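Comment thread on ticket #2218

A.B. wrote:
> Attaching the input chain for the structure job we discussed in standup.
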Amino acid sequence: MDTKIVEINSESLAAAKKVIQDGGLVAFPTETVYGLGANAFNDDAVKEIYRVKGRPQDNPLIVHLHKDYDIGKLVYGVPSYAVKLADRFLPGPLTMVYKSRGTVSAAVSCGLDTLAVRIPSHSGAQEFLKYVDLPIAAPSANISKHVSPTSAVHVYADLAGKIPYILDGGNSEGGIESTVLDVTGEVPCVLRSGLVTREMIAEVAGDCTVFVPREGVKVRSPGMKYKHYSPDCRTMLFPYDEIGKAKEAYLRAQADGTRVYILCDAACAEQIGVKNILCLGKTEEDVAANLYGKLREGEKVADLIIAVAPEKQDGIMVGVMNRLTKACGGKE
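C.D. wrote:
> Ran it. Output below, let me know if you need it in another format.
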């Protein structure tokens, strides 16, 4: 199959819509990462997402909607606090998990009675979703466990020859995946941290808890299981207060002839003072936006990436640390 990166216009949207209607897959941009989309009503198409990505069959998907789609066709029992959260944060990088009406393919939620729904704010995503006017099931548009894609080129590197079209919406500005929030209870519960923080949610909803995974409990959200976001090279992860140990590991690796780079924010880069740096930037927003791009940049030039965690650990950094741990310090 010939894979084309195409500008988002009337011609490419018509072509993408035909692929979706015919049960195929199309990659599209969002403000967080690029998604690999299929018609959520089509069981075979949804299963094709799992096959193309090599994604575990027990890892649920998120359904993406345009802002005018009637969510009531897909879910029920929406609490008043979820309406307030939607008014405040949507369209945007917030996914909410509702009780499902069971109208989409059971493969989307891996047999669960819930459905994760997101309304992305990226204008290109909205154009695509409005044009097809269907709920689009979509995980990140990469090979499972590899670094998530924040550009059309990243998608092409992983999925060339496997899908017909990649709709090019430029570089994703948010960087890390959406916050996933369970809204099926009396109080919202964060299943996956992201750019919409627990504190931001609690300010609107009055309260917000954070899910703590337990052995044997079936996951209700993507990103809660397995090693994710990993570059194609060896990795190490040090906490911020072990910058000295990170530098020692860097120097040992370099002495052994290993191509080694340190991945860290600007403050750490200045403090550590080595040559090969993958700098994530100065602000929380910079770090989130640049994380995946720098990991992909690093895997091309390094045998070993040594990551140093940011000093700040709250707010957006909760989501960043979740990804960084899974990428560089997580277990299978």
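A.B. wrote:
> Thanks. Noting for the ticket: The mean pLDDT is 94.
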